Predict the 3D structure of the following.
Amino acid sequence: MSIANLRRAAAESVSGLPRAFWWLWTSTLVNRLGGFVATFMALYLTIERGYSASYAGLVAALHGLGGVVSSVGAGVMTDRLGRRPTLLIAQTSTGASVALLGFMTHPLAIAAVAFLVGMASNASRPAVQAMMADIVAPEDRVRAFALNYWAINLGFALSSTGAGFIAEHSYLLGFLIEAAMTLVCAVVVFVKLPESRPVRGPVANSAESSAEREPDVGLGTVLRDRRFMAVVALSFLVALIFQQGFVALPVAMGADGFSSSDFGLAIAVNGLLIVALQIPVTRLIEHRDPMRLLVVSALLTGYGFGLTAFAGSLTVYVLTVCVWTLAEIVNSPTQMGLVVRLSPTHGRGRYQGIYTLSWSVAALAAPLTGGLVIDAYGAAWLWAGCAVTGTVAALGYWLLMRGLPGAAPPFAERPVSAAPAGPRTDSAA
């Protein structure tokens, strides 16, 4: 491909998106560029503070538990308070708690503040995703979600590189830099992003308002939405597999005699491929049948990890990472588009919060399931289980998507009511 073609492809990938999206994208990138703490937390606790590996694992679990707790609460806040206030609260709280964590020395204090950091840092996700759905046209949402995911991985790749150099000089400096950059994100949100929460307009005839207005959306509404909860369950299965790349894969490679640097090289391929391929692959898939994309990505995820059972060299390990990374590139924007499609306009925050919960719970469950299976049966059985789980998820997506109305645009949001909307009510929990 010529330079001119590359420039044209890049221009088409980023054109047509609103200015507010790019400020939100910038905030995401800055936030991930400052993501040092998660990268070196285990090293900080074991090397700098001298705690055991089991204590470091406990702190990581508490950090993840904080994310589980905040997923639902932040979704409710996103709908009740608005996207912008939720982002401001989440980002300022994250900055303050991360800075505080750097000064904690007592093990109970470290564990408690790590839980708070997990809560605060995860609270922004439903608001970001809901705001993106608000401000981007339905036909551009897959591309927008892909660009945001690309920013997340680009920022993570760069911050992971910088974290090592910073940690050599001062772990505390890393905490303070992350806190400062998170506060910069809050400033961007405050200065550049207007509130995007859809407002229900008044109804001309008040006698008709109760019958014609869009129904209130509470958490019970989300939990009773069987189709959406099926998406959450399938998302959990896929996330459970993906998490094994950071939980079970290093254990399995270590048992095969590979060094930590070998694992670092293999897993670095994941980030590099996402940065290199996310945008061009999204251009190829954004107008294709989402059912096929989700089915294929689930199969690639399961069997990409399943192939790890046959890996006897670093080259084969890298090849398996390439397979499930391609699945990740396809799955992430496609599934986010499906979540928006199934979410009523005035309940996006709650729906996004429950969807985020599936990944948070998977991050907690993956270390437990992976470790138990490896200890009891061996790594080969875990990889076989990943292949089976991916197959189940693919079948689930096929059954779920087959029931969606075929006439609807691939990623248009679900209409809740064709009648005029009624006055705003925030009584739903």
Summary: The chain has two domains: 19-197, 217-414. The first helix runs from residue 3 to 14. Residues 206-212, 406-429 have pLDDT under 50 and may be disordered.
